[in-house]
């Protein structure tokens, strides 16, 4: 239903916020975009967790179950998880990693 449109839009919004953070000048605006992107990721994760429960009629959740639907949802969540950490350590963030080539 509405999630067919909402979930891709949340992903696109998350990517756009990340790009905005990357191209913002260092300072408060950059970190505001970063925090906003993290909030969008948490919303995306919440709805993914809800979808697992709804798809299995309450038999599965994020931490329990064996269905293909649950596994795909967990992979989607896990795939998005490292991005905020990479941003923080990258040259755009605090610069712990300076040479990415």
Q: TL;DR of this structure?
A:
69% of the residues lie in helices and 0% in strands. The protein has helices at residues 3-23, 28-55, 68-80, 82-89.
Record keyword descriptors for this entry.
single chain, elongated, mainly alpha, 101 residues
Protein described:
This protein is mainly alpha-helical and 101 residues long. Helix content is 69%, strand content 0%. The chain has helices spanning 3-23, 28-55, 68-80, 82-89. 15% of the residues are buried. The model has no long low-confidence stretch (mean pLDDT 91).
What is the overall shape? elongated
Low-confidence stretches: none
Question: How many beta-strand runs?
Answer: 0
Mean pLDDT: 91
Distance between the termini: 43 Å
Helix content: 55-70%
Largest sheet: number of strands, sense, barrel closure: none
- What Rg, in angstroms, do the CA atoms define? 16 Å
Q: How many DSSP helices? A: 4
In N-to-C order, the SSE pattern is HHHH
SS-based class: mainly alpha
* Estimated share of beta-strand residues: under 5%
